[in-house]
């Protein structure tokens, strides 16, 4: 963390570049590293409220930290999770924050950690944004989106 906080920005940018938006992300990572050192004694907070206080950390990132760093139950909602949850009909929401809340109400906490991984993989392999693979989908018979397409034919 100290190395990152004191690193030259151009060196961080080279490391972050493959992830996209590397200039913004590099500045933010450097800034957050310094805040963690100054305000948190170099320890990453393990609760949502404290994580959300860090600049550039939204609900998705905070929930990812909780799940992947601390193995705490949370549901990180990215575009895949939001899209698929709405397509299947589990939720009827307009944004990822609403989707997170509805999924937390719908699924028992013991499933939260694995839910994100399952839906992200499902969204990359089967329920793609464009040209979903309905013929390969193991849950198409339960899917509102699929039935909506059939109804239009």
Description:
By secondary structure, the protein is an all-alpha fold. Helices cover 61% and strands 0% of the residues. The mean pLDDT is 94.
Content of β-strand: under 5%
CATH architect. name of the largest domain: Orthogonal Bundle
Helix content: 55-70%
Query: Which word captures the global form?
Result: elongated
CATH superfamily of the largest domain: Helix-hairpin-Helix base-excision DNA repair enzymes (C-terminal)
Structural class: mainly alpha
Straight-line N-to-C gap: 56 Å
- Nearest-integer average pLDDT: 94
How many helical stretches?
9
Give a quick account of the main beta sheet: strands, pairing sense, barrel closure: none
Domain count:
2
Order of helices and strands: HHHHHHHHH
Radius of gyration: 19 Å
**CATH C-level class of the largest domain:** Mainly Alpha
CATH topology of the largest domain: Endonuclease Iii, domain 2
Low-confidence stretches: none
Number of strands: 0
């Amino acid at each position: 963390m100290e190395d990152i906080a004191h690193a030259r920005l151009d060196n961080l940018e080279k490391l972050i570049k493959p992830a996209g938006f590397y200039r913004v992300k590099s500045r933010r990572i450097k800034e957050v590293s310094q805040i963690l050192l100054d305000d948190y004694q170099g320890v990453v907070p393990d609760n949502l409220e404290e994580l959300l206080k860090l600049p550039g950390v939204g609900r998705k990132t905070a929930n990812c930290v909780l799940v992947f760093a601390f193995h705490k139950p949370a549901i990180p909602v990215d575009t895949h999770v939001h899209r698929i949850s709405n397509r299947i009909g589990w939720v009827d929401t307009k944004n990822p924050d609403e989707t997170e809340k509805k999924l937390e109400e719908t699924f028992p906490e013991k499933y939260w950690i694995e839910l994100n991984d399952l839906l992200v993989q499902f969204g990359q392999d089967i329920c793609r944004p464009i040209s979903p693979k309905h013929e390969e989908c193991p849950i198409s018979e339960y899917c509102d989106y699929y039935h909506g397409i059939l109804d239009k034919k």
